[in-house]
Amino acid sequence: MSDLVCVVLVVPAAAEPRLVDWLMEQPGKAIEFAVHRVAARGPLVQLAGIEERVQGYAERVEVKLVLAREHSAALIAALKALLAGTDGGLWVQPVEQLEAFA
């Protein structure tokens, strides 16, 4: 089993600046991350307003974090505190390989 995991967060766009600022303030932690705009639907996402209900999905931000498995529980606990009351959620996936092209 790999010692890396990918924590995937789905949150409203309004939470993106706070989340990215918090991630950038994590000194000494080797956290790779990417941020993407996504169309989200499922148990982690509440469709708000008539437009989202008509579309059938919510416009959200997906943040993917790759880090050591041993640090993931503490990171998830901190993220839950940071994002308390925010619509959205997370899941964790194993990472088979992580490497740079250059």
Throw out a few tags for this protein.
3 helices; Alpha-Beta Plaits; alpha+beta; about 35% strand; four-stranded antiparallel beta sheet; about 100 residues
Question: What report would you give on this structure?
Answer:
With 102 residues, this protein is of the alpha+beta class. The chain has one domain (4-64, 71-94): Alpha-Beta Plaits (2-Layer Sandwich). Helices cover 29% and strands 33% of the residues. It has three helices and four strands, in the order βαβαβαβ. It has a four-stranded antiparallel beta sheet. The longest helix has 14 residues, at 69-82. It is globular and about 45 Å long.
- Helical coverage, percent range: 25-40%
Q: From the alpha carbons, calculate the radius of gyration and give it in angstroms.
A: 15 Å
- Poorly predicted runs of 5 or more residues: none
Largest sheet: 4 strands, antiparallel
Q: Short summary of the structure?
A:
The chain is an alpha+beta fold. It has helices at 16-24, 49-55, 69-82, and strands at 4-11, 32-40, 58-68, 89-94. The chain is globular and about 45 Å long.
Secondary structure layout plus pairing:
Layout: E1 4-11, H1 16-24, E2 32-40, H2 49-55, E3 58-68, H3 69-82, E4 89-94
Antiparallel strand pairs: 1-3, 1-4, 2-3
